[in-house]
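Input.
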Amino acid sequence: MAARRVGSPVAGVAEASGAPLVVLGAGYAGLTVAHGVWRASRGAIPTVLVDRNPVHVLRTELYEVGRLAAEEDSARWTVPLAKVFDRTSVTCRTGLVERIDLGGRVVGVGGAELPFRALAICLGSVPAYYGVPGAAEHTHQVYGLSGAKRLAKALREVERRSPGLPGERRPRIVVIGGGSTGTELAAEIATTDWRVIADPKAREPDVVLVTGALPLLDGLPAGLVGHARRLLRAAGVSIVHGLNTVRVEDGRVYLEDGTVLVCDLSVWCAGVEAPTLVRELPGPHGRSGRLRVAPTLELPGTPNVYAVGDVAEWTDPATGMVVPATAQAAIAEARTVAGNVVATWRGGTPRPFLYRERGAVVALGLGRAAASVRRVTLWGRPASLLKRAVQREYARTVERGEPSGVL
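Output.
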């Protein structure tokens, strides 16, 4: 799908041919880059957004497996790209990204070649299993919509069978990983009313959260973590601290101290890494295969090629800390990249990325959450209302093609 020639031609085959800005990935970062460039350039910069799916997935809401199990239609968790970019000049192209040739300034999509003048790599992340035997084969995950739907279906089936368990035994669900994804998921499973969804006689699940070697919600404010711990216990979630998972089998999770957790279902939330396509790109790589970027978020030595969101590793010079792989950080990076694409397209100079954390909110079951916003800690229902407000506002602005004011 060729883009029309817009803007001043510069040296280079791709540039001289009127090649567009190509954005790989329609997640939080990719959507923000494409929309930001369209708004800032008033449609003057040809932009092609590539994703394997024709929808934007609200990935930070995929922990809502109770709702996914109750609803046949998953439209609540997606926004069609055709709707998002309906009144813009952005071209949406559905296809699998097969290769990225930085030297030739071309990407392979669905067997065809797509040249680029500028490139934003926003391909997100995939589960990282860290070589743990059986983890990929015997656990579920919620890092994508299809995985979350499979987990929801499996949970519903486990609960449907639960009345037939011997004695007073309840179904046991083991969630591996004590970050925000694992914490939110464990609380959601524990507080969902499975009697309504699966069977009137369904038994409440016994949910075990294995945090691994890292502390629960590592990196988040102590006040938020403290309230999260209390709310998890109130929800009936058991927490196993300080022990990594060393092997997973069907119905068994093995911990490094020899403990064996017998379970009906296990979920992997222990971390993510860059996709193989990104890991294989030339240049410096950081933790989990992420691309190390310059202050402008460009790949070093490769002008007008940016890494954004989960695929990028950038260390904040003000704190010495790597910016976290969160939707909030991805959107902040994407705004800087959008501005830099427009600036360089017009012959200007890109600016460095500056990151400011706005706060954090962790959902902890139906009607409960813990939050830290501008050094103020909220918990319980007020924090849950804040979480819902942020989610609704983001979805609303995406559908209308407006910049999000909450992330």
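The radius of gyration is 22 Å.
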